[in-house]
């Protein structure tokens, strides 16, 4: 009988849980219960109210066996208490990760097995499988992984049958790090209608360079070997000529056909198969005149597409932000203004934001308001705004209660009223059940 990697990972972690719990030296548990309230009012449709209740629950069991083994579990479940909040039905849930990890006493080596997230160079994936990483001699390091990709897009079910990849790197005395990475996913469904499948292949190189503490350059370049084209450039340069003054510059380029094709979330991350987006910009931040902090930023976007001509053209986003820290850092507030100018009506507007947060240790409250004022009408509206009010209270050292209420209007929604009630707990116990 065939078993999916998902079932195998879940079976292994659940079977190991009682044994590991009995031998656990350190046990950490965390959970968040969320009740969300939302009233949806789309133009031309009847108002609907959704009240989903979601439970997030995680457990970390460390120092198992010889002290180098650990078990990590995290998942969630949802039940709708009113109208359906998603198309998945009145209830849903998933295992976000569940894996065993073993750390070797030498070479900073580690081994994982189960369901987990991989972030190695060109790979940013959730898989059911195994991974290994180790620091080698003379500054070299190696990380490898293999398994089955987790289905993220439930509508198209376009995940492949197998995924594997890794990253090799070289680091020189805290001065330089160079990385080379690759990813191969077999039999990805690229066309749900016909069922046709192709392999997904990406290779990349990444760089971190800091010749002295006032200068840092990091970034990466990804290439899609399946479509034989550049996928992404992304680089950030940071300068700190003074302790309280920072300058930064960035450059990004994405070719959608090569970057998003065969994505694991095909319906969301394949918006334009022939488009390209370039952007560059810079920012400056001053922190020397406490309690105020001032920053300014600029970014230029260039979008091109053969299938969606309305999105073509250039646009600029620029503005400034002022932050204040008062009352011995208990009160933090700020005001920001940005201007976006572009050829399309949805990409030409003024944006104003004001926010404040008070934190006394046990009690937290915040207010955040943002508004956008468009040059041209969009669905007969020239503005959009949202106000968010939140508060929280630390009931016990391990237990916190918080809530959030927001209201807004925009060209797509006549009224957008949402609320969240959240109960969070964190628990950590040492060997023999002694609480930390």
Can you put this structure into words, describing what you see?
This protein is mostly beta strands and 436 residues long. Helix content is 6%, strand content 67%. The protein has a 22-stranded antiparallel barrel. 17% of the residues are buried. The chain has 2 helices and 23 strands.
Overview in brief:
Helices cover about 5% and strands about 65% of the residues. It is mainly β and about 425 residues long.
Distance between the termini: 45 Å
Helical residue percent?
A: under 10%
What is the SS-derived class?
mainly beta
Task: Please provide the count of β strands.
Answer: 23
Q: Indicate the overall shape.
A: globular
The secondary-structure element order is HEEEEEEEEEEEEEEHEEEEEEEEE
| Overall pLDDT confidence | 86
Question: Characteristics of this structure?
Answer:
436 residues, mainly beta, 2 helices, 23 strands
Chart the SSEs and their pairings.
Blueprint: H1 5-23, E1 26-41, E2 48-50, E3 52-64, E4 69-80, E5 91-103, E6 110-120, E7 123-135, E8 140-149, E9 162-172, E10 176-191, E11 196-212, E12 215-224, E13 229-242, E14 245-255, H2 256-260, E15 276-286, E16 292-304, E17 313-326, E18 331-342, E19 349-359, E20 363-378, E21 381-396, E22 399-410, E23 413-429
Antiparallel strand pairs: 1-2, 1-3, 1-23, 3-4, 4-5, 5-6, 6-7, 7-8, 8-9, 9-10, 10-11, 11-12, 12-13, 13-14, 14-15, 15-16, 16-17, 17-18, 18-19, 19-20, 20-21, 21-22, 22-23
């Amino acid at each position: 009988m065939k078993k999916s990697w998902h079932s195998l990972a879940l079976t292994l972690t659940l079977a190991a849980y009682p044994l590991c719990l009995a031998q656990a030296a350190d046990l950490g548990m965390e959970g968040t219960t969320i009740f969300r309230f939302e009233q949806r009012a789309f133009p031309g449709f009847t108002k609907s109210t959704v009240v989903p209740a979601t439970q997030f629950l995680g457990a970390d069991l460390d120092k198992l066996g010889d002290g180098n083994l650990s078990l990590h579990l995290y998942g969630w479940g949802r039940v709708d208490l009113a109208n359906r909040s998603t198309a998945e039905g009145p209830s849903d849930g998933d295992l976000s990760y569940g894996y065993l990890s073993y750390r070797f006493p030498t070479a900073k080596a580690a081994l994982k097995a189960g369901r987990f997230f991989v972030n190695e160079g060109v790979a940013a994936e959730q898989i059911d499988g195994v991974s290994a990483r180790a620091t080698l001699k003379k500054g070299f390091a190696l990380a490898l992984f293999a398994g089955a990709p987790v289905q993220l897009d439930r509508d198209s079910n376009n995940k492949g049958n197998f995924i594997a990849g890794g990253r090799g790197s070289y680091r020189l005395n805290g001065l330089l790090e160079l990385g080379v990475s690759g990813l191969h996913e077999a039999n990805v469904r690229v066309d749900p209608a016909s069922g046709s499948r192709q392999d997904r292949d990406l290779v990349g190189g990444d760089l971190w360079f800091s010749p002295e503490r006032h200068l840092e350059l990091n970034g990466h370049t990804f290439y899609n070997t399946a479509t034989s084209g550049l996928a992404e450039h992304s680089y950030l340069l940071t300068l700190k000529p003074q302790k309280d003054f920072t300058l930064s510059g960035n450059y990004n380029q994405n070719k959608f056909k090569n970057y998003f094709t065969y994505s694991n979330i095909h319906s969301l991350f394949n918006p334009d198969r022939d488009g390209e987006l370039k952007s560059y910009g810079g920012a400056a931040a001053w922190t020397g005149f406490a309690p105020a902090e001032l920053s300014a930023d600029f970014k230029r976007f260039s979008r091109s597409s053969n299938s969606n001509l309305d999105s073509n053209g250039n646009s600029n986003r620029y503005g400034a932000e002022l932050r204040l820290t008062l009352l011995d850092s208990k009160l933090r507030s700020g005001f920001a203004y940005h201007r976006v100018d572009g050829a399309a009506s949805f990409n030409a507007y003024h944006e104003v934001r004001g926010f404040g947060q008070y934190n006394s240790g046990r009690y937290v409250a915040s207010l955040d308001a943002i508004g956008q004022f468009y040059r041209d009408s969009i669905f007969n509206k020239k503005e959009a705004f949202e106000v968010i009010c939140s508060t929280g209270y630390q009931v016990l050292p391990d237990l916190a209660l918080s809530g959030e209420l927001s209201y807004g209007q925009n060209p797509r929604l006549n009224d957008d009223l949402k609320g969240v009630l959240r109960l969070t707990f964190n628990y950590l116990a040492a060997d023999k059940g002694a609480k930390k």
